[in-house]
């Protein structure tokens, strides 16, 4: 079985294409959990084909079917063990921890070896502080978890650190309306990835759930979900790779249907960031048109605290263009699919670029930039490593990307779409 892909782009580096992106992984994960909590009142439209979403959907469907089979026999439900393996899906792992904590049953929640290194203690302790019965099966603070229902709420108030992952907060907010006492959540310290919390609250509001966000405290009273449909926009994080392609091509005209200017996704900030690189975004005909215009790049500092999933895309664009820059807000990168800082440092070294960590910022030093004839990129089980480095095929004759299947996590058709845009994509 071929594991890698070899990318090249022969002839003029001109891109003129239309790419239909799949639904946002973040919006879908929320929509599915909200739909499950609403017990059918809420439906989801434009479900993503991202593997993380497909897995979460399957898990929730199976749990729903089991629950129907067992009816209201509570003591029987809590005796039956359910093994839930969420693979590499971090958001789904966090959302399910909260979701399962309020179900009636016994659950063993696990994932990949990397998942067992991604912290979850902050969320588990918060859930325990309001009555959840959760224990760590291997290492304190990390999956796998054993979760035992039924849930008896002991408190309405919960304090949670905001600077490690916003997913913990979103997970709690989604279960809040279903809790007998509701929830008053106090965020301690800085809130990272804030647009994702806003996305959660907006999607809840779309199905009739009111919230009160006052400074660092969010309150959600017990409420029932309206009967409603949640429409999922295409994935802006996936769109970012097309901005990168436009930036590294000589000429580009790319249409991404379905994306709009008023997105719930913080990663739509890519339009603003890429304007600095001469990539314009025009919203018309129900989508966004990307065009490349000549521009001197001036911006030297990028704060990505609100859009951490764009980090690899933007760092690689700057590296490939030889644009020295400083990046801040990357604190959470080390606990994602891989240690993304280390992965970037290792792979950028292959084109002579340094990514230097200093206090809380990162300096990109492109003084040694060179493009070899061929480069092989390791992906460290991280879809974003594969997709962020793929556009380099517009600068380097042959780019081999290892473990091509990693892209399935969020963008399964990535390689097909590259081919459609004129790249040669050969499995090796
Ligand atoms: O809530 C979400 O859907 C996500 C939140 C972000 O995580 P952190 O809050 O851990 O930064 C982001 O990186 C992840 O891909 C998706
Ligand atoms: C961090 C990511 O995902 P997750 O945390 O859901 O694994 C991502 O998609 O970049």
TrEMBL record:
Catalyzes the transfer of the enolpyruvyl moiety of phosphoenolpyruvate (PEP) to the 5-hydroxyl of shikimate-3-phosphate (S3P) to produce enolpyruvyl shikimate-3-phosphate and inorganic phosphate. It catalyses: 3-phosphoshikimate + phosphoenolpyruvate = 5-O-(1-carboxyvinyl)-3-phosphoshikimate + phosphate. It is found in: Cytoplasm. It comes from the Bacteria. It holds the Pfam family EPSP_synthase. Phosphoenolpyruvate binds at residues 25, 90, 118, 167, 340, 384, 409. 3-phosphoshikimate binds at residues 25-26, 30, 165-167, 193, 309, 336. InterPro entries: Enolpyruvate_Tfrase_dom, Enolpyruvate_Tfrase_sf, EPSP_synthase, EPSP_synthase_CS, RNA3'P_cycl/enolpyr_Trfase_a/b. The active site is at residue 309. Residues 11-418 form the Enolpyruvate transferase domain. Pathway: Metabolic intermediate biosynthesis; chorismate biosynthesis; chorismate from D-erythrose 4-phosphate and phosphoenolpyruvate: step 6/7. This is 3-phosphoshikimate 1-carboxyvinyltransferase. Keywords: Amino-acid biosynthesis, Aromatic amino acid biosynthesis, Cytoplasm, Transferase. One of its GO terms (molecular function) is 3-phosphoshikimate 1-carboxyvinyltransferase activity. Belongs to the EPSP synthase family. One of its GO terms (biological process) is aromatic amino acid family biosynthetic process. It is an enzyme of class 2 (transferase). Its EC number is 2.5.1.19. Monomer. One of its GO terms (cellular component) is cytoplasm.
């Amino acid at each position: 079985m071929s594991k890698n892909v070899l990318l090249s782009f022969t002839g003029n580096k001109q891109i003129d294409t239309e790419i239909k992106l799949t639904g946002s992984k973040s919006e879908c994960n929320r929509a599915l959990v909200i739909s499950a909590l609403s017990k059918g009142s809420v439906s989801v439209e434009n479900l993503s084909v991202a593997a993380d979403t497909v897995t979460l959907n399957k898990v929730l469907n199976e749990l729903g079917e089991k629950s129907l089979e067992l009816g209201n026999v509570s003591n029987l439900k809590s005796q039956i063990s359910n093994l839930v393996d969420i693979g590499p899906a971090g958001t789904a792992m966090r959302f399910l921890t909260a979701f399962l904590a309020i179900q009636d049953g016994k659950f063993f929640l696990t994932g990949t070896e990397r998942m067992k290194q991604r912290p979850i203690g902050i969320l588990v302790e918060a859930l325990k502080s309001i009555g959840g019965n959760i224990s760590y099966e291997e290492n304190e603070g990390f999956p796998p978890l054993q979760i035992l229902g039924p849930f008896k709420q002991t408190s309405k108030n919960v304090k949670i650190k905001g600077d490690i992952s916003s997913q913990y907060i979103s997970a709690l907010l989604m279960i809040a309306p279903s809790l007998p006492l509701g929830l008053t959540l106090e965020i301690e310290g800085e809130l990272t990835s804030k647009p994702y919390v806003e996305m959660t609250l907006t999607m809840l509001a779309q199905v009739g759930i009111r919230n009160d966000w006052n400074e660092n405290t969010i309150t959600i009273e017990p409420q029932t979900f309206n009967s409603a449909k949640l429409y999922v926009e295409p994935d802006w994080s996936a769109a970012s790779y097309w901005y990168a392609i436009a930036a590294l091509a000589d000429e580009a005209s790319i249409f991404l249907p379905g994306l709009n200017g008023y997105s719930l996704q913080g990663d739509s900030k890519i339009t603003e960031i890429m304007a600095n690189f001469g990539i314009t975004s025009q919203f018309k005909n129900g989508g966004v048109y990307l065009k490349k215009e000549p521009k001197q790049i001036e911006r030297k500092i990028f704060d990505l605290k609100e859009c951490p999933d764009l980090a690899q895309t933007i760092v690689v664009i700057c590296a490939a263009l030889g644009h020295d820059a400083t990046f801040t807000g990357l604190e959470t990168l080390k606990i994602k699919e891989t240690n993304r800082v280390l992965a970037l440092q290792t792979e950028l070294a292959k084109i002579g670029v340094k990514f230097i960590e200093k206090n809380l910022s990162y300096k990109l030093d492109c003084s040694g930039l060179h493009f070899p004839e061929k480069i092989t990129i390791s992906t460290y089980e991280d879809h974003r490593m594969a997709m962020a480095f793929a556009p380099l095929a517009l600068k380097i004759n042959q780019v081999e990307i290892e473990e091509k299947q990693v892209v399935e996590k969020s963008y399964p058709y990535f390689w097909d779409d590259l081919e459609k845009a004129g790249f040669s994509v050969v499995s090796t």
